Fold each of these.
Amino acid sequence: MHFQWSSDSPSGFWLGPALLGVLLIVIGVLLYVWPQLLAYVVAGIFILTGGGLLATAWRMRRRVTYQRFDNRWEAHDSDYPQV
């Protein structure tokens, strides 16, 4: 697989990963200076992950569909079985 990189990329495309890298470095330095902060960081990650999982479950709840499977389908029936 060969990628062709173009110089016509959006000018601010690099800014997101750069800011995330700076944020992670700052968090790492703060954790080194103040080790008690680790408990808050871990608790925050758990809360954000739990909220994300709840939101995903809430969206999935609407997608679950149930169909009766006790009907006997015949080969000559139409595309949709009569209930």
Amino acid sequence: MKHWLTAMSCALGVSVLAVPVVPAIEIAPVGEGATSVVISGYTFPQDPGEAGKRMEAFAAMVGFVHFHRSGSSLRNDIYHRPIRVPELELALSSPVGQGDLLVAMDLLNGEMAVLSVGGDRAAADPPFTVEGFEAGSSTVTLRGLEPGETCYFISVRPGHWPSYRSLTEGDWADGDAEENGVFELSSALLRSGNPLYVLAGERLLAFSVDDAVPVPVVLESSGTRARQVVPVASHIVGASGVPFVSDLTLTNPVGFRLTGWVRFVREGGTLDGAPSIPFDLEGGESIAWDDVLQTAFGITDNVKGTLVVGGVPGWFVQVSSRNYAVDGEGRRFGISIPGLQTIAPLDLEQTWILPGLVEHGAFRSNLVLAGLAPMPSQVTIRIIAGGTVRAEADREVPAYGLLQINRVAHALGAGDVAAGYVELTVHAGGVAAGLSVVDGSADDAAWIEARPMFP
């Protein structure tokens, strides 16, 4: 297959030099006048079923930016496209010049390589500082800028194309809306999407366009790299007196090794203090645990909580679980509960609906809320039936933890509901939400995930 990339250009300002970094992805050194670059060391998927065969369904994802002078302005040529070769020689639309900046990104693991041409600025002090680029922060602040200064940003997170922004201090994007040298930016604006706060392990490159010889700042956000959450897992006796347990299956569908961990966060517990087990999956492999809390964690007491899956790059792991019981004749019954990505939570930009609420003598409905954010989330829960709000309550959902409200209609004061729904509004943070509707005649349940009111 012929490999090609697209290029786009836009005028920015002046020349740039870079702070080198040393990740796996590399840009071969180039000098002035070069018309191509060689990029290597990026994640290159292989077919898990046949050694050395490239995967047709999964390519490398490489991003590249060439910042170069064009007259009195700085231009950025942006290239990105799925790549199916282990080493990329890329033709540039403009020859490399003195002071140019080259940035390559491995978008499967989020790594970034930065190369300056004709000058090493590694020892230079950054002209500004960056605060708040850490897990859970909704605002990133730059201090030490000149009033009205323009900055350029590249935001990278594994498995997604990068975001590019050129923004000016004091304009519409500045949270304080003043030309005062302090730039307060929404983290969601930097990356053009969910979640509305920083997740651990994201990378950000920032530099001042207006400096004569700017020094880029390259950052990786701090925090525990929680990537997926199973909203509820248990080793517990249910309302009928039958023990309910959870299994867990992890699958690696991509052609490179995935390593990480699984933690069990007890209801009322925290991620940092949770017991943990490691996993290591080659391409195409799966691993499964029956009664995962007992077989993997050695937990035999009456307990429930969430299962949190993390690692690098943990978003590619496919996670599934069942919460089930075994009757006296050895028959299993229960519900399937998916692992949900922390990168796509229910958040405050939408109203969320859980339809199918039924609660009376024959049925009961349990509301399950799990934190997908690195900080507590604030939510409002409404029980709606017959066209009216029958009950309303505010609750806090722990970071990566479980909030379960059994018989939710009765618990919130709505009484019996023959047919209704739960309306959920998130005021801060991000959550997963599901409704377990249980048929009391057989203790069989249906799992209903929240969906947006406005698709």
Amino acid sequence: MNKAKFNMNSLLVIIIVFLTLWFFVNVWVFNNAKNVFIINDNHAIEGTDLWIHYGTVEPSGIYKGRINTMELELEGTYGYEWGLAIVGNDLYLNEYLTSDLGMTFCNLVRVDMNTFEKETVAEDTILRGRCASGELVCLGDCLLPSNEPTINSLCKLYGMSSKAIHPESNTVTVFYIDPMTGETVYVRQDTAVMTKVFQKRYLDRTLEEVRQ
């Protein structure tokens, strides 16, 4: 009887030790996995001494200076590939924010390139570029492609709580912003916004041509 009890206690000790080791190994792997993929990507902002930096070692954000000695001026994840515009001392660009549930949101922000003060111009808005007459062309009432229902299962849940965004709808709002005043000067609905048609329809033409 005592021998059976001893064997059972020994088995429990072994199981506890094994689970403890398994727990610490998984924690170690998780903490060190961040260092496996090192990101150090820099994009120069033409006409300035500023950079958009994406990194896992140094914070992502807007840096200033030469590539080897540049210093962080404004931390955050900012877009470079889709939309970026310089108007006087102001820098218009997309800022990406990630929620705890894996949803990625985009706001249009304006950054003073002298003081690096940031102002949100429009929430849930994607800057796509400038049209031929200089206005900022933006997309509203839509989610980033990474949030589509087929990719992110939480997308539909978010859509239920948002009055403006309908994940399953193909229609989005295209609107033009005067970069000098930050005011919206034209709005229309469209469905061909994530295709090559968008470039010819909105970016390659003036606002007056689009109105017509």
Amino acid sequence: MEVATLKNSIVLKRYQRELIIEPYEIRPPAIIHVKGDNPLLNVAFALSLLGYPKEMIWEVGYEVVNSSFYTQDRNDSTHHYIGPYFRWEVSGFWPTVEEEILLGTPNNNFEHYNRIASILGIAHLCKRNPAMLSGGETAKVVIASHLVHNPRFLILDRIFNELDEISRLSLVNNIKTILPSSIVCIVDETIPSYCDFTVSIESNKPKWLKHHPTTNISSGISVGNNMALLHVEIISLFKAKHKIKITLENYSVIRINKKTFDPVSCIANSSDFVLLTGPNGSGKTSFLEGLAGLLEVCGSVVVDGIDETDHKAIYALSPQDPQCDITEHNLYDELLFACGSTDQVNALIKDLKLPQHYLKIPLKEEIGLQKLTSILAAILRGRYCCLLDEPTLYLSKEFRQIAINAIFRYLRQGGIVFCSSHDKYFIDFMKKCTINHTASGKGGFFSRTPHTT
């Protein structure tokens, strides 16, 4: 088996920060988990380590200082990259998922495709139109479209949290059998299972940790058709300052003349955090978009304690893809546009201790900052209820903490949050805060039970 070797040190630089990547030897197949406080630097490290072109490193804002020592043999057939803008990769030309994935593959290797589809849990989607998929299902299709080409090097940049937990586990535990001669870099703060190496980038020199094989790896895991019910859990965090109540009775959302999920009944009061969980395609995004008035709904939604009946006056939506939401040049301008009050913007900045240097950075430069801005803008719109679709996607540790603090601030003031998430750490943290009560996916069950931390 060929050994991939970084033969010379590489120096990356941006402003006053410098990263020195020293020679390292990696034997394929291998999975490298890259994490650190700066997502763009993490990506630049992965690109440099695996010999991607300097132009890609420049795109994330870093320069290869010692360019005379930097060599690359990258081409489109050997070096693949999937990033947080993965939705752009869906062509829109092919009517089925199967055709979209197999586009351009030699001899249409259906056996290879079928195995990948089984591992990612998308076999049941093969005849579905790619435009009709959820965000997580779309991410799986894009991943599959790269895997069928058997890349020698693959970078998964902040796409892992688009997948439900079972799909993440299945992919990381099977990817070395799909790509037996490849090196895969996963750039993310957390991943669910075994990797060969973890690289932490917190100083000017990456810290490598080599993991030893473990018997806990379940290499045979594959994902079935994700038909489990959407789960709704209500977490009461604070004593409500207001008396607002949102009652859902046999609520569901209609797409293509069908209910997206089994009807749900629940009651959310002021300061409640309503958590939506379930596998990719279970209807979490549709649930939120239905409340926002963007999709047709069935059942009833009753809001007590306020006079307004217009959806726009009740709900503020932060979508899964922040690019659908951002209109202004920087964070400060977006927040000001959201509420129209410099006093409110400045109060939020002060309460969250938001670093001043983030206020004027062009939002187009970093999707994590776009995502954080979308969340803060939704909270500042002054609506009674915030609808947050996967609020921790793409966020660094620092941004994640700011987002959580902002959510708590909004709940403390009496707002209601409906939130979808696959982020186990975020979900576990929220559940530890206080008591919870659970709503069924059938509409016939509602209970309140103590929660033990």
